[in-house]
Predict the structure.
Amino acid sequence: MILRIHDFKKSFDDLKVLNGISLDVDKGDVVAFLGPSGSGKTTLLRCMNCLEVPDSGTMEFAGNTYDMHSISNKDKAGIRKRTGFVFQNFNLFRNKTALENVSEGLIVVRKMGRKEASEKAEETLEKVGMAAWKSHYPSELSGGQQQRVAIARAIASDPEIVYFDEPTSALDPELASEVLGVMRMLAEEGMTMVVVTHAMDFARNVSKHVVFMEHGVIVEQGSTEEFFSSPKEERTKEFLRLEEHK
Amino acid sequence: MLSERIIGILADSFFKILIPGLTVTIPLTVISFALAMVIAIVVALIQFAKVRVLKDIARFYVWVIRGTPLLVQLFVVFYGLPNVGILIDPFPAAVLVFAINEGAYCAETIRAGLEAVPYGQMEAGECVGMSYMQIMRRILLPQALRISFPTLANSIISMIKDTSLAANITVTEMFMATQRIVARTYEPLALYIEVGIIYLVFCTVLTRLQRYGEKKLGRYRI
């Protein structure tokens, strides 16, 4: 177990988005968060990386336990140094080239030398197939290319866990598949990944573990094979049936 | 209309006007604008970050400065402050007033620039593990200044002409130099047109610099 969250609760005004979520993530696990829109899966992911502050809940990560409601900025930074986050709309730094997007955190946060950071960044870009575009600015890249650079940025610092928030939702199928290809490669290398996704192929073929959410609670979770071949809950069966017909 | 006398006066006065332009008007503009940018960035950051108390002070500053004429501000500092024992020489007094005045306008320009940067840029910086100030300095502020650049260029072009108001507090800049020659020669039309043309040339150079700057900055699109 590398990460354990316990009883996450979060409301936006009167709307309960997370209604007591507890979850373990093992090292090397690839967890897919599935569920209809508005089920709270993105909010859960954002809470796990302190982009949202839950109303209550604790998180164990890398040997420390954090009260996520009153977490200090120092602890937030500590968590983020050991995690990577990939956004739905990429959020590459627009004033930085592809290479600089990846090396920036290495230089500023990891205090790596400029040359060493550039080499590491280039190596990471190579891995996602973007080394040839290292001098391009985000505005000069396609959505799929931007997302691959964003993945390189997230993994360059060798994080213990990488979060993906609907990484292919803003992309057309062809561009999505190049991003999913990179994610599959990372999964095969044993990277610990938590992925909010609507890409059922990815959940079915790459993830090892599925968490199905609705109305801010976990309806069902289990191994990917079990989840797809013999779902237990009625709601899960209905969701899978609807997805089949998409 | 252009008699030999007038041509002679124009030619004689050209350097007498241009030299104060190069030695007073331009330094006054450049120094004041540089200070104004420092003030503007600090005030914009305070407002953007919504720092308590400081934010109210920043708002008050912008409100007062934008709500009163530049000429009044010059007179208060140069002719008014000696009443309470604060005497400032003409040139530093002018720099002070122009910097404080322009700082208020540019603060609003930069604040608008900061607010135009999508919030995802901040979140991406946080997720990389950067601190607020690191994100501000390396990601948000460069983008905000890029967005604000044409408006800031507008401000400095406007300012170089506003420095003529410093003549009123005895700064011998380009306009005052012209007034003195007019008093001697009684040729206001020709001489004021002449100084106007010199201002126009200065502004043309600035406009060129703006174009060049935009081109340089334009490699990445916001």
Notes: Chain A touches chain B at residues 49-51, 76-77, 80-81, 83-85, 87, 89, 91-96, 104-105, 108-109, 137-139, 153-154, 157 (CB under 8 Å). The mean pLDDT of chain A is 94. The radius of gyration of chain A is 18 Å.
